[in-house]
Structures are given as structure tokens and as C-alpha cells.
Amino acid sequence: MRCSGRWARAMAILREFEENCGTPIGKLRQVADAMAVEMHAGLASEGGSKLKMLISYVDNLPSGEENGLFYALDLGGTNFRVIRVLLGGKDGGVVKQEFEEVSIPPHLMTGSSDALFGFIATALANFVATESEGLHPSPGRQRELGFTFSFPVRQTSIASGNLIKWTKGFLIDDVVGQDVVGELTKAMERIGLDMRVSALVNDTIGTLAGGRYHNPDVIAAVILGTGTNAAYVERAQAIPKWHGLLPKSGEMVINMEWGNFRSSHLPLTEYDQDLDVESLNPGEQIFEKIISGMYLGEIVRRVLLKMAEEAAFFGDIVPPKLKIPFILRTPHMSAMHHDESSDLRVVGSKLKDILEIPHTSLKMRKAIVELCDIVATRGARLSAAGIVGIIKKLGRDTVKDGDKQKSVIAMDGGLYEHYSKFSTCMESTLKELLEKKFLTTSPLSSLTMAQALELLS
Ligand SMILES: Nc1ncnc2c1ncn2[C@@H]1O[C@H](COP(=O)(O)OP(=O)(O)O)[C@@H](O)[C@H]1O
Ligand SMILES: O=P(O)(O)OC[C@H]1O[C@@H](O)[C@H](O)[C@@H](O)[C@@H]1O
Fold first, then answer.
1. Any idea where the Hexokinase C-terminal domain is (predicted)?
2. Is 91 a catalytic residue?
């Protein structure tokens, strides 16, 4: 009786959580509409919305005919990458590329500016030293560097911008408000590395530019990695807060910083509130905290902890490791969620290896997989609603009769790339949102909305 009472209590906790995470199609439509409204508000004036809608100064996207040797570095929320690429012009495409990826030492995320940028400059110098034959710049030509920086920056030009705030797991006070290109340039000079930063872009804009290099129909980009964000191509005339010269192209890429989106329609739970309060940036990045890779595993841990504390889900003793924030990472959650074995042995091994919970029954493991599915489904469906918000803002959510318009969204990020149940759910939700919309407007169009919208990884 005691066990069955505990089991019932644990299942009640799980059912309540599932209820509060619900994303019925009507709610997703409200989220999409709210995203479009906030986009307009963020373009109208500085501070007009939680969406910063940052001007990127990128008003000319790649044509695919570029040529030459280029270096890039990408500072993300978890990984740091250095890349060199030789582009071969119209017919040559990407002739050769080499890259190295390193995990960012956690202590650098909360240390000093000199330590972080010194680490970056040194890694870059080491990479430049490995240039192989055929990958040298033309004699006398300074090496140029594209700097992809995955944090909100108020750009002051294509190659300069001041950090607005840190997000994800970073918190380095002496960089906030500083020009991150200046910080990197000083670090490169300190070690005698002769390179010029010719562009500073957010990683969503890098993804959009990379997508457009291959496909002229790319109009937006979404990152689902450690954090989440989106960028898209806006008409320069549609940016009231922009008082600069109108670009020749008539276009301006906008970094939405959609991770900071907030709406009363978002299905937030007590676990999300607690996670936010205890985070490095309380009150900020709420959308990011319920859909991106840094946080999904942590949400699962918090629900399991409540089930353990209030329903003795793992027995009379609450497993000590279960109390450690962020000990359960999203890749661990993903492995459990994708466990196809009949006895859910992957779930069992993760619980044993990560949380030191050696014995679990099959029905416990099934409940844990169900919990992973609830968290991932909410994140995936909200991501799709965000994309539909962009499409709606651009007036591309309906296809006029006979119109062959294609809207391609460039996708990137380790969560999207590796968590297949997440990305599959996101894509099916997009179809659900667009097909329904399509059927209520003009069912005779040559393209269904789902066909008119394509995701490019
Ligand atoms: N196998 C996986 N399953 C689910 N999520 C994953 C997996 N591997 C990585 N991730 C998520 O992707 C994030 C890394 O994203 P990535 O885009 O590679 O780097 P960054 O966020 O530093 O730019 C990790 O923080 C993690 O949350
Ligand atoms: O590539 P990452 O680390 O997942 O970053 C995605 C997004 O993470 C958010 O936290 C940042 O504010 C964005 O600027 C960034 O684009």
C-alpha cells in the first residue's frame, strides 16, 4: 500500500508537470502571434520589446561567388571553434576548409576578460601556425578574421560592437559594455598575432550568411545549441528605429535575440521559475531557459528531484547527486529519450553513471523517458511557434495562388543537430501550424505552406 501510495504521488507530480507544459495548437498560435508583435515593437524603438532586434550592419549577404582565404572564430556557449576556409568563387565553392573545436574551460566563463580573450588569441595563433600548403594568404596580405560571437552585442559597425550582457553560463563583468573586437585585438597584439577582425557577427547571422551562400531562398536562421536565438532579413524601410543611411540592398539582417522573448502564453512551470531564480541571469532569457540545450536536462533533474523528495521515487533516501544543479546534461537526457532497448538499459546506465542510482525498475525507467519527452516536446513545439512568428511578421505565412515563393530557414546548433526527437517534433509542429493556417486561406495554391517552408541544416 505504502509503495502504491508513493507511486501514485510520483505519477501525480508527473501528470501535473505534463499538464503545465502543454502546448496545444491554439497556444502555439498565440505564441507565434506574440513573437510577431514583439518583433514589430523591438524594431520601432530601442527597449520597445524584450526582443532587442539588434541591427547587425550586415546588409549584403553572400552570393556564393566569393573567393579567397578566410579565417573565422566562433565563441559559443559551450564550444570554441577556429576555422579557415578557401573559397573558390562562382564555380569553385568551398575549395578547402580546416577547423578545430575545443570545449571552453568553465573557469574562463566566469573569470576575466584578459583570461578569456587571451585563451582565444592563443588558440587562434596555434591554428594559424598549422597552415598547410595552398592555404596561405597572398604575399603581403594581412590575414582577415570573421568573429562569430554568440552573445547579445550592440553593433556599432560591421566590425565593432559592445557586449550588452552575458547569457548561458558566462558572467565576466569587465567585458560588459566593452567592444569585444577591441578586447580580442588587444589580446592578439599581446601575443604578436597579426590579424584584422573584418567582421563581428552573432552566430545566428553567421548561420544565415552560410545558408544564403548555398541557397538564395534563405531568409532566416535559428540556433538551437547551448542557447537559442534567431536572425532574419528585414526590409531596411521596416526598421523605424534605424536612422542610418539606407543600404543599397534595401535589406538589413536583424539579430532578434529571441531567447529573451517572454509572453503570458508561454507554458511556464514552478520548475522553470526556480531554475530562473537560481540562474546567473534571473528574469532574463526565459524563452531560452525552456527550449535550449543548456537547460533541458536541468529541468528533467528538477522534476526528478521533486518526485524523489515528495514521493520517494528512488526510495527513502534522496540520491545525493540528484541535488547537484546541471549534473544531468541534455546529451544525457537525449540518450535516455532515444533508448530503444526493451529493458531501457541506457536509461539504467545513465542513472547509475551520472546520478549514482544503481537500481531502477522498468516502470521507473519508462516514467523517466516520458518525463524527457514532455520537456523536449515543449521545447520543440515552442521553437516551431517562434519560427512561425518570424514567417508571419514577414507576411510569408500564406502562399498566394500560383506563387512559387520559398522560405528557407537555416538551422544550426548541437541540440537541433543531435537531438533527433527534438528536431523531428519541431518540424512536424511547423507543418501542423502552417498547414492548418494554409487550409483556412487559399486551398488552391500550387504550394502548400509546408512545402513553401524548408529547413536547411
Ligand atoms: N547528443 C546531444 N543530444 C542533445 N543535445 C546535445 C547533444 N550534443 C550537444 N547537445 C547540445 O548542444 C549544445 C552545444 O551546441 P553547439 O552548437 O555545438 O555549441 P555552442 O552552443 O557552444 O555553439 C550543448 O550545450 C548541448 O546542450
Ligand atoms: O551557439 P549558442 O552558444 O547556442 O548561442 C545561441 C544564442 O545564445 C544566446 O544566449 C545568445 O544571447 C545569442 O546571442 C546566441 O545566438
1. 220-437
2. no
- 86 DSSP β-pair partners: 69, 96
- Which of 127, 183, 148 minimizes the C-alpha distance to 72? 148
DSSP designation for 261 = -
The predicted complex's ipTM stands at 0.99
Considering the candidates 59, 74, 179, 203, report the single residue annotated as catalytic: 203
Average pLDDT over residues 143-169: 96
Is residue 117 within 8 A of residue 183, CB to CB? The reply is yes
| Cell numbers at 131, concatenated | 597552415
> Which numbered ligand comes closest to the C-alpha of 375?
1
Q: What is the mean pLDDT of residues 336-355?
A: 98
Lookup: cell for 83: 576555422
User: Phi and psi dihedrals of 440, rounded to 5?
Assistant: -90, 0
- Three-state DSSP class for residue 423: helix
150 is catalytic: yes
The DSSP call for residue 397 is: S
Distance separating alpha carbons of residues 299 and 337, to the nearest angstrom:
14
Q: Which pTM was predicted?
A: 0.95
DSSP classification of residue 326: T
In this structure, which residue's CA is closest to atom 21 in ligand 1? 226
DSSP for residue 21:
T
Measured from the alpha carbon of residue 168, the closest ligand is 2
Q: Is 414 in the pocket of ligand 1 (CB under 6 A)?
A: yes
- pLDDT tens column, 292-332: 999 999 999 999 999 999 999 999 999 999 999 999 999 99
Q: Which carries the bigger pLDDT value, residue 101 or residue 400?
A: 101
Of 80, 85, 58, the closest CA to residue 70 belongs to 85
- Take residue 226 and report the three cell numbers written for it: 547551448
Within 13 A of 383's CA, how many CA atoms are on the CB side? 35
**What three-state secondary structure class fits 92?**
helix
How far is Cα 317 from Cα 125, in angstroms, rounded to an integer? Answer: 51
Average pLDDT, the chain: 93
pLDDT bracket for residue 3 (50, 70, 90): confident
Of the candidates 165, 128, 129, the residue with the CA atom closest to the CA atom of residue 149: 165
